[in-house]
Amino acid sequence: MATTLGTPRDQAVDQALRDHPRAALDAESVRDAYRRWAGVYDALFGGVSSPGRRRAVATVNRLPGNRVLEVGVGTGLALPRYRREKNVTGIDLSREMLLKARERVEQEQLSHVDGLLEMDAESMAFADGSFDIAVAMFTASVVPDAKRLLTEMQRVVRPGGHLLFVNHFAAEGGPRWWVERTMAPLSRVLGWHPDFAFSDLFDSRTIEVEAIQPCPPAGLFTLVHLRNAVPNLLAVPEQAAA
Q1: Average pLDDT score over residue span 89-110
Q2: Spatial distance between the Cα atoms of 170 and 149, rounded to a whole number of angstroms
Q3: Helix (H) / strand (E) containing 148
Q4: Cβ–Cβ contacts within 10 Å for residue 128, how many?
Q5: Contact by Cβ (8 Å): 128, 134
Q6: Phi and psi for 217 in degrees, rounded to 5?
């Protein structure tokens, strides 16, 4: 839904915002941003992000399969919430955030956490099909290329497994859209894309969507549950068909 503004001047400003370039993120800008955020992340974002994390982990806990990958594990806020039979591996690009997560694992004796690794989510070192479930909480709008992130998550999760995302997705209109679009050039400073849209992550016409659920507070965040595609083993290879 587009923003509707009355005067020609307002319409010109609206169009200028739509045309405003988004500041590109890269791995180094993400590292820099979360080096700054690491010490205060839990205090600033832990509370507002808690309902989304709880809902995502509750979904993971209900799903079949115990091999879980948490992409963008950050300071490990979600780690205590997984059921103990789940074997959780966490990755993050920020060394400073991982240090906080490792302290949490040690202090809370989280024996179900198999490892916390410094790794680029767009180029993971895991073999194909290593996990039953991959979950990315507040990560998709942080990485430089969210579709590449999705492709990597699809690769490391077994066919028929599950992909979960909790994220802020941009409004389609209204005052919130205006604020998000205005903040877009600050992406490198913030460490995420304020104007991140569903289409930046996936094309609903080409992927199996299990569920899309708004999360508190006030639907600011959304839980997206995708099913990893099962290869069509009955498909006839092109050479054979020819």
Answers
A1: 95
A2: 19
A3: helix 146-156
A4: 10
A5: no
A6: -85, 135
Does residue 195 contact residue 22 with C-beta atoms inside 8 Å?
yes
Residue 85 pLDDT: 98
Fill in the DSSP letter of residue 5.
Answer: -
Contact call for residues 103 and 36 (beta carbons, < 8 A):
no
CA distances from 17 to 12, 178, 196, 211 (A): 9, 8, 15, 31
Q: How many CB atoms lie within 10 A of CB 109?
A: 8
Distance from chain centroid for Cα 114: 21
d(CA 142, CA 30): 7
Q: What is the pLDDT of residues 16-48, one digit of tens each?
A: 333 444 444 556 656 666 566 566 756 667 677
pLDDT at residue number 167: 87
Q: Which residue has the higher pLDDT, 202 or 49?
A: 202
Tell me the whole-structure pTM to 2 decimals: 0.75
What does the mean pLDDT of the chain come to?
A: 78
SS3 for 34?
A: helix
64-103: b or e for each residue (b if 16 or more CB lie within 10 Å)? ebebbbbbbbbbbbbbeebeeebbbbbbbbbebbbebbbe
